[in-house]
Amino acid sequence: MAVATGQATVRRAAASADERTTRLDAILKIVAYVVLVLMAMLMFVPFAFSVATSFKTQAEAARLDWGNMLWVREPITDWYRQVFDLGIGGWFLNSVVVAAVWVVSRCLLDALAGYAFARMTFPGRNLVFVLVVSTLMIPGIVTLIPRYILLREMGLYNSVGALTVPFLSSAFGIFLMKQFFESLPRELEEAARIDGASRFRMFWQIALPNAAPALTSLAIFTFQGSWNNFLEPVAFISNPDLYTLPVGLAMLRTEQQSNFPLLMAVAVISTIPIVIFYLIFQRYFVEGQSRAGIKG
Amino acid sequence: MASVGLGRRRSRDPLAAEDAVAGWVFIAPSMLVFLAFVFGPILYVAWLSFREWEVVRPEKTWIGLQNYRTLFASDDFQNAFRNTVWFALGVVPTQTFIGLVLAVLANRKIRGKTFFRTAFYFPSISSSIVISIIFLWIYSNNGLLNFVLREVGITPPRPPWLNNPNGVIAQFLGVFGVENVSAWLAGPSFALLSIMMMNVWTTAGTMMVVFLAGLQDVPGDVYEASSLDGASRWQQFRDITVPLLRPVTLFVVTLGFIGTFQVFDQIFAMTSGQNGTTTLAYLIYQDMFRNFQGGYAAAQAMVLFVVILVIYLVQRRLIGPTEQS
Q1: CA gyration radius for chain A?
Q2: Do residue A235 and residue B117 have CB atoms under 8 angstroms apart?
Q3: Cα end-to-end span (Å), chain A
Q4: pLDDT tens, position by position, A125-164
Q5: What DSSP designation does B61 have?
Q6: From the CA of A2, how many Å to the nearest CA of chain B?
Q7: Which residues fall within 8 angstroms of residue B316, CB to CB, at 6 or more apart?
Q8: Phi/psi of residue A70, each to 5°?
Q9: Which residues of A touch B160 (CB under 8 A)?
Q10: Which chain A residues have a beta carbon less than 8 Å from that of B118?
């Protein structure tokens, strides 16, 4: 009897605890929605505000009200035409060229090095790998001065070379590719080895074609890093014809001071490629970031 | 199995012999880039920090510790150091906290999870310069922020945000009649605070994504088992979620500190270091490319390097090498 009552009490207590948890869950869910929607709006408003401003006359931009905050009463496209006269087309092209070189070179060199660190035993391998990974925490500004000197010596200062040569390989990419190749089954390559393939052929014909997911992640991360890079372009380039988009925008800001509609037009044009990339490859962005996060 | 066999017979295996050379051939292109643009420059910047170099002239004269003595006594350096520390101390805890809250909220069965993740993460993949220019407009006197503040009856600070060099804590204490607070206690200027808020807005989404990845590593049955044991939601959060997230949190905080200690783009584009916003990275740039004091700038770069090295080593000590991988 006593035992049975005890069990019943426990059961009743558990049931009411369950009820409480369910109610709490419902409340938490509502709170979550409210907070998430508010935050999403907070993330969205600055971008919407900049797009709206880019279609406004200076007079309208200066007279904000609730109605035209994220909207335009009499949209004009003059600023978009004007920024092309200021040379934004050239900057856009420079940004594209630099990004293309970064992406192609890093996918190749990082895959080569990552494969070597993952699969091959050679003297000094572990030490070199630790050194490479430790460079991840060195800020670009610390090595900026020597790199500037070196690029001058190499005759690359004020050329596309200054924006590409120092970035042909990346520690993050090598790390990413090494992790990936370690997860790839060895059997594939061993079969090729039995057929008498060299290491390079095992890499080129077997491992690399199977590395498409990792290479896509790396390419997207690299594109984004290159597209948004600012420190080196501003320090190594003084010829306006060689500006990339971020440098062009920063320089326009000093020239145009408070002509915000025009600056917003440049901001919008600079962001469109990233938006397109992001919407297509969103999964890879998030995965890459998570992987970078877990890495340590 | 086969791989173990290969390893044991390494000396006689032709592949192992090939690898000993081919390994270096594979990494050689990358290593050339690293030697020239990372390892070499680190050594060179250390070497240069003991010299006087006027950038426009070739001579680099040995002056021992003079650069370091000058910089530690310099008001500019102390201001930049203080601004950088305020920046990091303000931004890192805030963005970590918001990132954690967003991740915990988004890590449940809700509609539009992907949409929220997309929205929150987008600012962190946008160009820092684009974001700076957008916020320059938002923070301007007739900008969005002041408009909204005025509409809801709050008087915006004057001069407006980015033009305001007054320390926020000093301003606050001034309301209670406290005057002449020390430089450290004055807090970041309104201008620096504006850039800090923008930085939190930009990075909180990144932190959320990293936390979300960490949360998804927590197996669901741990929660189920604890529910059966009668653990409350709060107990679950405190006793399961938080401890399991500790390595991720430490990582996010370290990432935050390393990032905030080198903040440069935003300062360049928004204030050019005016109104109490000069950070260490911006000061290095300025002394090198505007004031042409190469050796002095190199010494400042070394100090920044050591600070970041210390942060990194503290993180490694706290996480421990085993949990890293």
Answers
A1: 27
A2: no
A3: 58
A4: 999 999 999 998 899 999 999 999 999 999 999 999 999 9
A5: E
A6: 22
A7: B324
A8: -115, 20
A9: none
A10: 278, 282
